[in-house]
Amino acid sequence: MSSRRIELDELKKEDGKVVGAANGLAGEDFDTEIYQIYGLSVNPKGKNESVLIEINGDPDNFVALPPGGHKDTEVGTTTLYYGDTEIILSENTIKINVDGNFLNIENGVLKTDLDIETSGGITAQKDISTNAGVKAKEDITTDADVKAGSISLKTHTHSYSWGHYPGASNTGTPS
């Protein structure tokens, strides 16, 4: 068995096989099947060096070593997988898919449909927003003001006109 270096371009699926456009370093162009290692799929951008292996010394019977894999992988990505669990890596993105759920980090934003549980604290440098309620099993405390709309818990007063407090028309601020 002999081998030679080639450059592989974008990979594609043909007749159920992963095929890459190959350019031999001697200048020849041809398509070749990619040897697929289970658990890793790579489909890099542009030309990537690979090794073409002739089987039984037959120059017409050959296969290229990875990049490649059993799963279809978008151009510019690498996919690590085991069964239905996969980690997809690209230039600005990490996507993790487990049991039909996802955790994505893309353009500086973490998105998930999973519950998040931590035994450590969470510190945020920006506002925390929710489209649902907030539940706490212990007191929620803050040294800052708490507001409902424009109503401040620290400075809000109530005016009254009933006779409970003679001579006063406003309550004091909360203490």
What features would you describe in this structure?
With 175 residues, the protein is mainly β. Among the domains are: 62 residues, no CATH class; 36 residues. It is 0% helix and 43% strand. The strands form 3 sheets. It has a 6-stranded antiparallel sheet with strand order 4-7-8-9-10-11, with no helix packed on it. Strands 3-2-1-5-6 form a 5-stranded antiparallel sheet, with no helix packed on it. Strand 2 and strand 3 form a beta hairpin. The N and C termini lie far apart (86 Å).
According to DSSP, the number of beta strands is 13
Helical fraction equals under 10%
Number of helices: 0
Mean pLDDT: 78
Strand count, sense and barrel status of the largest sheet are: 6 strands, antiparallel
H/E order of the elements? Answer: EEEEEEEEEEEEE
**Given the C-alpha coordinates, what overall shape results?**
rod-shaped
- In order across it, which strands form the biggest sheet? 4-7-8-9-10-11
Offer a quick outline of the entry.
With 175 residues, this protein is mostly beta strands.
Features:
175 residues; mainly beta; 5-stranded antiparallel β-sheet; 13 strands; 0% helix
